[in-house]
């Protein structure tokens, strides 16, 4: 173990600046564009030259100031915006000299006498190569050799500047004292100083190379280096992130190997090792077939050890991720998608959300996964879909699987109508029929026994059929009627039997036995409904400024439904409860025998209720203000402000219920007062009163009785629960920019496939508005608030939460962000995340700090923006594990 510790520490020092982790800030800075040559304007002065290869070529030249010749006419001097075109070689400079005898072209700039700056630098281009800028150069038109001083050239996202370079006949380039950087300035902030090297068409091979920052040489050097020049995928080593954790020791994080398998598939193997014996391994792969599909696969495994040596807390965790999407045009009429996120229950907490320290991800308690396929059949008459899905609850370690679920839905048809019908429909031609079939295989168990025999025995299988029949028509132009019914039938391959044990005090217990075998049950209901719209009288205002009118719209709907009693044991679905003595158990409140459904808890338990005849009602309300728009200069522009959107009240009255015929009345609505402020609210009103009572001689306080509130002279029902929430952003530009960033990244994902980095960015952007930093927005502050009130039989509970986030520019290049909330119950702030970003032009610097809480940590990162040098980074991090020391 000591040898491992020393080895990792030594490698950490060597690789201190090289790693592959991402920075949390980005900039929209665009690279400097080099001057493009204008070949459309050519001077009419042309001289034919015979070179050493005896091939006649034309040289074209011009200058805005003057063109002079030597006495023997062998040398041409061009001054002021001079240009020379010789074959595929193009050259622009303030001064150009052409020696015809020796076939030498020399170009340079000049020093401006006023500004003392060197201007008019040569800009040259040869063949299909890009343009380059230099201080001066020599070019041999016969041999195509060239010698360039102080070059500045862009090559596939990288920039070469300074030094000397020689171009040979075979297009091989010899370079000396040249800087390579991803900084696009002529005088870069940083770079790799190449003492000498050779550049060919596919590669650059150098001698000693060292890093230089702000013209200061650093000790980070290599005796030689190799830079491939190719647009194809290539395999290579991924350098690790070195660091130290007080609990797990020194570490090398995310070291590995990248496999560029082909243009459609790649893979990345990475691992992290700690000196205390902890380790992590990751396999990620991306695949894409253009115009067909794309996706990625991620496999993570972590073996963590925390605590004092000899008493470590050892944990083994895993995560499986798979994302797949199909191009909509790849196979019209069918789709295939996958979104798999399976993990052990402690993975996110043990690995600090894969070392991202994202509080929302660490606190995640549920996870869902699905693999779905759908296809349109019979020319659109049927739609078939199937899916495998999983739902995990980390706190209880329960998992619910559907293996698989399928649906077959038939479009609604009018069997008595004719395609060749002329005229209005007769009443029977308005009858519609539909059909749907569902199948399900489900397992609900603890994740620890999922693949064990006791877990597999909990598999439940069943089918459900539904046949709706209906008819719609309009009466008196304003009343919309519908009537019909639905027949439902369920098939299950398991059922239950309960064994009851009764006691002398009248109580009893039950034990459930699961029985294998086919079991079916059917039910039906009949219904009719009526709805219309009622427009309130529009009220006009003349003395309320820009407010012009107020309009109220009500949409009442009344329905009636009937279903017979399917709980009768004679129907074969329900059974009467019999105790150990063979006696029927009686419900003391109703005086009727206790019954239970044999399909209780099955894949499709069905809907089997007692006889019901219910009247349902819904009242929806909308209130709008019509105001004059202050931005309109003509005086005729108006806009609508929805004061109340969809405030609905709903409930039902069961005519056949023995007691409490009226159900509680629920309401919900929303109001959007401005573009920045919107409120959602909901609640429940209970019409029954509370009274103190006794049960078997025992005093019971606040018992709900079958008596309405108005019968006690009260004007309002009881408010049993109420909640409202709203969010507000003070800077609309920040919200707009966030949505633009999300849409842009999502569009890139849909076109090219989602990489693990893009997936992480999308999730972070959904959770945190500050996940992407934009220095162009000087400030932003937003908060979200939710209030919930419940009153259960006179005992009230209030909960409210407040979350807020924001950022502001300390200077045009410094950004400060924060994200936290307030816990009203504990009267304190929730865990806070503070970050500082610095735009260093071609570098990013970020400082992330969680000052308190279970995941207290900090990290400092300085990283090159360009993806070409993504391994070049200086990083320091302290892990959250130190909190427990």
Radius of gyration, taken over Cα atoms and rounded to an integer in Å: 38 Å
Total helices: the number is 7
Biggest sheet descriptor: 31 strands, antiparallel
Shape: elongated
| Low-confidence regions | 1-55, 749-758, 764-771, 880-885
Strand content: over 45%
Class computed from helices, strands and strand pairing: mainly beta
Span between termini: 21 Å
Number of strands: 54
Mean pLDDT: 79
Helix content: under 10%
In a few lines, what is going on in this structure?
By secondary structure, the protein is mostly beta strands.
Describe the structure.
The protein is mostly beta strands and 885 residues long. It contains 7 helices and 54 strands. The chain is elongated.
In terms of topology, how is this protein built?
Elements: H1 2-14, E1 46-50, E2 56-62, E3 66-69, E4 75-86, E5 89-99, E6 104-108, E7 110-111, E8 118-119, E9 123-126, E10 132-133, E11 136-140, E12 146-155, E13 158-167, E14 173-181, E15 190-199, E16 203-206, E17 209-213, E18 216-222, E19 225-228, E20 236-238, E21 241-245, E22 249-262, E23 265-274, E24 279-289, E25 293-306, E26 313-326, E27 334-343, H2 347-350, H3 352-355, H4 359-362, E28 366-377, E29 382-393, E30 398-413, E31 431-446, H5 453-456, E32 460-475, E33 479-502, E34 508-531, E35 534-535, E36 539-540, E37 547-563, E38 574-576, E39 595-597, E40 612-628, E41 638-654, E42 665-672, E43 677-686, E44 688-695, E45 698-708, E46 718-729, H6 732-752, H7 756-767, E47 779-792, E48 795-811, E49 814-823, E50 828-829, E51 833-840, E52 843-850, E53 857-864, E54 873-878
Antiparallel strand pairs: 1-2, 2-4, 3-4, 4-5, 5-6, 5-9, 6-11, 7-8, 9-10, 10-12, 11-12, 12-13, 13-14, 14-15, 15-16, 15-17, 16-19, 17-18, 20-22, 21-22, 22-23, 23-24, 24-25, 25-26, 26-27, 27-28, 28-29, 29-30, 30-31, 31-32, 32-33, 33-34, 34-37, 35-37, 36-37, 37-40, 38-39, 40-41, 41-42, 42-43, ...
Helix pairs in contact: 6-7
């Amino acid at each position: 173990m000591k040898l491992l510790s020393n080895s990792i520490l030594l490698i950490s020092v060597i690789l201190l600046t090289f790693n592959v982790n991402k920075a949390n800030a980005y900039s929209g800075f665009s690279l400097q564009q080099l001057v493009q040559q204008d070949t459309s304007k050519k001077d009419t002065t042309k001289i034919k030259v015979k070179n050493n290869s005896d091939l006649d070529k034309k040289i074209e030249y011009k200058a805005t100031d003057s063109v002079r010749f030597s006495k023997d006419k062998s040398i041409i001097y061009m001054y002021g915006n001079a240009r020379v075109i010789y074959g595929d070689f193009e050259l622009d400079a303030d001064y150009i000299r052409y020696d015809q005898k020796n076939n030498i072209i020399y170009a340079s700039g000049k020093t401006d006498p006023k500004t003392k700056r060197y201007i008019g630098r040569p800009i040259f281009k040869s063949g299909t190569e890009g343009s380059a800028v230099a201080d001066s150069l020599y070019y041999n038109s016969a041999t195509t050799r060239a010698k360039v001083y102080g070059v500045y050239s862009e090559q596939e996202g990288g920039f070469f500047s300074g030094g000397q370079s020689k171009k040979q006949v075979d297009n091989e380039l010899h370079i000396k004292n040249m800087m390579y950087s991803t900084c696009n300035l002529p005088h870069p902030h940083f770079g790799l100083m190449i003492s000498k090297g050779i550049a060919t068409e596919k590669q650059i091979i150098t001698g000693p190379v060292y890093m230089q920052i702000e013209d200061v040489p650093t000790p980070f050097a290599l005796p030689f280096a190799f830079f491939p020049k190719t647009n194809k995928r290539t395999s290579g080593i991924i350098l690790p992130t070195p660091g130290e954790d007080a609990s797990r020791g020194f570490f090398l994080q995310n070291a590995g190997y990248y496999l560029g398998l082909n243009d459609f598939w790649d893979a990345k193997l990475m691992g992290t090792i700690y000196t205390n014996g902890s380790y992590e391994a990751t396999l990620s792969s991306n695949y894409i077939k253009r115009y067909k599909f794309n996706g990625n696969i991620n496999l993570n495994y972590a073996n963590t050890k925390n605590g004092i040596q000899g008493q470590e807390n050892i944990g083994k965790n895993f995560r499986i991720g798979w994302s797949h999407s199909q191009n909509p045009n790849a196979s019209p009429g069918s789709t295939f998608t996958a979104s798999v996120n399976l993990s052990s229950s402690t993975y996110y907490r043990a690995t600090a959300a894969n070392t991202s320290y994202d509080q929302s991800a660490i606190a995640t308690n549920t996870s869902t996964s699905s693999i779905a396929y759908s296809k349109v059949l019979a020319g659109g008459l049927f739609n078939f879909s199937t899916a495998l899905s999983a739902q995990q609850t980390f706190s209880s370690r329960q998992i619910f699987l559907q293996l698989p679920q399928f649906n077959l839905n038939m479009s609604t048809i009018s069997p008595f109508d004719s395609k060749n019908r002329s005229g209005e429909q007769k009443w029977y031609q308005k009858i519609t029929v539909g059909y749907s079939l569902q199948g399900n295989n489900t397992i609900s168990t603890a994740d620890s026994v999922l693949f064990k025999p006791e877990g597999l025995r909990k598999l439940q299988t069943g089918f459900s059929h539904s046949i709706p029949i209906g008819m719609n028509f309009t009466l008196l132009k304003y009343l919309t009627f519908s009537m019909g019914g639905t027949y439902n039938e369920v098939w299950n391959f398991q059922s239950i039997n309960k064994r009851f044990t009764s006691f002398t005090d009248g109580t009893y217990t039950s034990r459930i036995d699961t029985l294998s075998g086919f079991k079916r049950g059917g039910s039906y209901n009949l219904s009719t409904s009526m709805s219309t719209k009622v427009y309130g009288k529009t009220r006009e205002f003349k003395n309320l400024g820009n407010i012009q009118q107020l309009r109220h719209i009500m949409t009442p709907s009344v329905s009636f439904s009937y279903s017979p009693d399917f709980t009768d044991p004679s129907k074969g679905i329900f059974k009467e409860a019999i105790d150990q003595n063979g006696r029927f158990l009686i419900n003391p409140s109703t005086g009727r025998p206790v019954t239970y459904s044999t399909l209780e808890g099955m894949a499709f338990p069905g809907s089997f209720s007692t006889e019901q005849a219910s009247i349902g009602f819904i009242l929806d309300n909308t209130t709008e203000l019509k105001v004059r728009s202050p931005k309109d200069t003509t005086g005729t522009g108006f806009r609508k402000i929805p004061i109340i959107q969809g405030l609905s009240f709903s409930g039902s009255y069961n005519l056949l219920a023995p007691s409490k015929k009226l159900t509680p009345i629920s309401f919900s609505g929303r109001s959007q007062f401005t573009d920045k402020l919107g409120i959602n609210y909901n609640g429940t009103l209970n019409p029954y009163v509370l009274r103190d009572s006794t049960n078997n001689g025992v005093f019971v306080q606040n018992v709900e009785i079958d008596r309405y509130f108005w019968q006690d002279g009260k004007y309002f029902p009881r408010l049993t629960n109420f909640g409202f929430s709203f969010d507000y952003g003070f800077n609309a530009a920040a919200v707009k920019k966030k949505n633009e960033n999300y849409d842009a990244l999502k569009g890139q994902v849909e076109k090219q496939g989602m990489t693990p980095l893009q997936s992480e960015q999308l999730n972070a952007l959904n959770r945190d508005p500050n996940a992407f930093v934009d220095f162009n927005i000087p400030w932003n502050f937003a908060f979200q608030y939710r209030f919930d009130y419940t009153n259960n039989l006179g005992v009230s509970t209030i909960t409210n939460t407040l979350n807020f986030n924001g950022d502001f520019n300390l200077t045009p290049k410094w950004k400060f962000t924060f994200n936290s909330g307030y816990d009203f119950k504990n009267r304190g702030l929730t865990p806070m995340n503070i970050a500082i970003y610095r735009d260093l032009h071609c570098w990013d610097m970020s400082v992330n700090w969680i000052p308190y809480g279970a995941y207290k940590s900090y990290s400092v990162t300085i990283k090159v923006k360009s993806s070409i040098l993504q391994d070049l980074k200086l990083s320091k991090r302290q892990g959250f594990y130190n909190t427990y020391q």
